[in-house]
Amino acid sequence: MRKIPVTMFRALIAVLLLAAAPSVWASDQALWEHSTLNEVLKRGELRVGLEAGYMPFEMRDKNGRIIGFDVDLARLMARYLGVKLTLVNTQWDGIIPALLTGKFDLLMGGMSMTPERNLQVNFVDPYVTIGQTVLIRKDLIGKITSYDQLNDPKYTIATKLGTTGDIAARKYLANAKIKAFETEAEATLEVRSGRADAFVYDLPYNAVYVARYPGQVGILRQTFTEEPLAWAVRKGDPDFINWLDNFLRYIKADGSYDALYHKWFEGTAWLHNVSE
């Protein structure tokens, strides 16, 4: 078999690449035209989905406004995009379907990345890592020192339905009685009132709750899971994911992220302004 000269081979490759270039460009252009990022820029509005009630990520102040770590990040994001921000408060058990049906552009509700959720949505790079902890009723302070002591039928564990805390409780405390509630407020009230022995939830929320109600509840601060939290977008949108990943890298590099993290996770000045 005769060999094709190297120069002829290179020329052939060049011709094929040139022929393919217009279709590749057209494909990229079509992706951009349908990108959420392009839609946000044309609309002049970024719609962010979350559920107010997850301290310190998003909750309502005494005037009914939604505030928190995610909210400040969303405001900063909208500023860099040059668009206005609209917060879409959505019940947690319907928040992924709401994203998929286009009720908002981006899910920023402190969502843990799980393989099951990743089948439905795509995640941006994690922006914070948390773990599950246990809030305990005041009568158990000093008596319960580890989460696994609660793995007993005599204990009632409150959880929030559909969260990784609910999943963790059913996995690690399977012998206890599990009571799932629609909201954090309902579940934590069960513990404060003594109708439940413990509440399994993310460390930031539980730590803030104890600071808010000192002496009324206790906390086992040692986390027993490790969960990266990330923003979620609809599948098939590489341009939006690329922008969000780079936005996150940029604000971590310029100090903006650290300032907001300190404000919401290490400071407590904002607590007096949170509604009951």
Lay out the secondary structure.
Elements: H1 6-33, H2 36-43, E1 45-50, E2 59-60, E3 66-67, H3 69-81, E4 84-89, H4 95-100, E5 106-112, H5 115-118, E6 122-123, E7 128-130, E8 132-137, E9 156-160, H6 164-172, E10 177-181, H7 184-192, E11 198-202, H8 203-212, E12 217-220, E13 227-233, H9 238-253, H10 256-266
Parallel strand pairs: 1-4, 1-5, 9-10, 9-11
Antiparallel strand pairs: 2-3, 5-13, 6-13, 7-13, 8-11, 8-12
Provide the descriptors you would attach to this structure in a database record.
2 domains, alpha/beta, D-Maltodextrin-Binding Protein, domain 2, about 280 residues, five-stranded mixed β-sheet
Describe the protein:
This is Transporter substrate-binding domain-containing protein. It comes from Solimonas marina. One of its GO terms (molecular function) is ligand-gated monoatomic ion channel activity. It holds the Pfam family SBP_bac_3. Keywords: Signal. The chain is α/β, with parallel strands linked by helices and 276 residues long. It has two domains: 36-129 and 228-273, Periplasmic binding protein-like II (D-Maltodextrin-Binding Protein, domain 2); 132-220, D-Maltodextrin-Binding Protein, domain 2 (3-Layer(aba) Sandwich). It contains ten helices and 13 strands. The chain has helices at residues 6-33, 36-43, 69-81, 95-100, 115-118, 164-172, 184-192, 203-212, 238-253, 256-266; strands at 45-50, 59-60, 66-67, 84-89, 106-112, 122-123, 128-130, 132-137, 156-160, 177-181, 198-202, 217-220, 227-233. The termini are far apart. The mean pLDDT is 91.
